[in-house]
Amino acid sequence: MSYKKFAYVYDQLMKDAPYDEWIKFTKEIISKYKINPKIIVDLGCGTGSIAIPLSKEGFQVIGVDLSTDMLSIAYEKMMLNNTSFPLLEQDMKDFNLNTTVDLIISYCDSLNYLEGIDALRQTFVQVYKHLKSDGYFIFDMHSPHKITNVFNQTFAWNEEDISVIWLTDVDEVQLSVEHDLTLFVANLDGAYEKIHEVHQQRTYSVDTVVKLLEEVGFKPLDVFGDFSLGPVTEDTERIFYVARK
């Protein structure tokens, strides 16, 4: 799934996203499991909003994303932040680093964009191949609760230079959602450009994800809810998984 023109307004739409919470959570897991990562791979890095702060904190980072446009913006932001690290345009299902690393992360529900359980398995296999022995994989996914009870509505908002109409179509059996986004974005001349995108996401039960990790060879270590080190509850919207090779 490529973000196309949507990439150029993505950061504006995500300006209130809790990127600092993802950074904080990552550091907490690194501390909890005494991980000493020489390299962190951010799988599905998007515009670099997590990879760049990690780089500025002294971690060696590699960003991987499928979208050329997202990576172009990540590069621009990287230059503005006086930091530098590799940005690779690759599909997470078959990415190739030509090396193994200590830690791979995948946040912002990136894995929910995979087409189905086989694509998720294939991605887990690739992650496993690229981890050193005892390497760690930390990722998040939408909870089934979020798919069925939070996304089942229409969202709309209007700001000075952008208006958004966000329709959703939820399949409660497949635990999937189709996001139909229409954006009106102000150009420099004051005229508005219409951007239309349709994105598909799918999630799975905790048991399904844990079983899949085990089938690939991972040792699932922990499952947490909503940026905390606490358990997943019926109201959890974002589930975090920690697994070790």
From TrEMBL:
<dbReference type="Pfam" id="PF13649">
    <property type="entry name" value="Methyltransf_25"/>
</dbReference>
<dbReference type="InterPro" id="IPR041698">
    <property type="entry name" value="Methyltransf_25"/>
</dbReference>
<protein>
    <recommendedName>
        <fullName>Methyltransferase domain-containing protein</fullName>
    </recommendedName>
</protein>
<keyword id="KW-0808">Transferase</keyword>
<dbReference type="GO" id="GO:0016740">
    <property type="term" value="F:transferase activity"/>
</dbReference>
<dbReference type="InterPro" id="IPR029063">
    <property type="entry name" value="SAM-dependent_MTases_sf"/>
</dbReference>
<feature type="domain" description="Methyltransferase">
    <location>
        <begin position="40"/>
        <end position="135"/>
    </location>
</feature>
